[in-house]
């Protein structure tokens, strides 16, 4: 990559941020399509968020991703939100259009992209999502219009109820919420087609943990785990051994990045470009 006086800058902000895979993903994409652009990571403390955003505007940074803990707090510094970002009150992508900052959320669309890419139909299916945090919110809003039935299971039942209530305002599919227990998971999975783990359970260092007992998984299920460290979580290993279709967290990461890249550049990048870059990066850091 050649950096010169015309190079456009893109970024990701978060805290902490040093573990991010986004620079590898987006720089590979810029190189592939021959765009004179570079993508860097900035560790931004919550108290400095507004200064960072003002700085980006002054410097003409073309776009940036936003990750924990700024996905909600960034909103007050933006000029405009797209409808999904507004519904879920979270932004992961910002586009700078001549000084006007536009906020988007591509996390949920990324999950839709994974299913489309793998040719797995979602229309009318029963989808069980475990978790009710930021990731679950983005994913459930993207899938609710496709699902025939959507079930939110969460350890803290109140959060599951709140998420289901907010979904019901926008989507006409059957939306249920329950407390997450081994029993409720087992009951809900018996006639489901899709299971999504939207919690951090199974992530390093607790790689032997899974949100679901292996006995509940059938070969009729497609299982997506948002965790990508490790790539093959205990949940995905169990699902694979039961003959279920599995999708890992890296695919979600790549597909949300594809959507962000499209928002910034108008270009739809081939997933394989980003996958190769991120796999190479992971080999070096994991
Ligand atoms: P994120 O924005 O990444 O989704 P979050 O808002 O902290 O992060 O949400 C994490 C989700 O994982 C929550 O749904 C959390 O359940 P609670 O709402 O009860 O906290 C869920 N979670 C985390 N650890 C869990 C565990 N050991 N078992 C079950 N659920 C867990």
Q: How does this structure look, described?
A:
- With 286 residues, this protein is α/β, with parallel strands linked by helices.
- It is built from ten helices and twelve strands.
- A six-stranded mixed β-sheet has the order 2-1-3-5-6-4.
- Helix 5 (134-143) links the parallel strand 7 (126-130) and strand 8 (149-154).
- Helix 4 crosses helix 5 (134-143), helix 4 (107-117) crosses helix 9 (249-265) and helix 9 (249-265) packs across helix 10 (271-285).
- The model has no long low-confidence stretch (mean pLDDT 96).
- 2'-monophosphoadenosine-5'-diphosphate (ATR) is lined by residues 131-136, 154-156, 159, 180, 199-201.
- Helix percentage: 25-40%
Largest sheet: 6 strands, mixed
User: Which radius of gyration do the C-alpha atoms yield?
Assistant: 19 Å
- Which ligands accompany this protein? 2'-monophosphoadenosine-5'-diphosphate
Mean pLDDT value? 96
How many helices in DSSP terms? 10
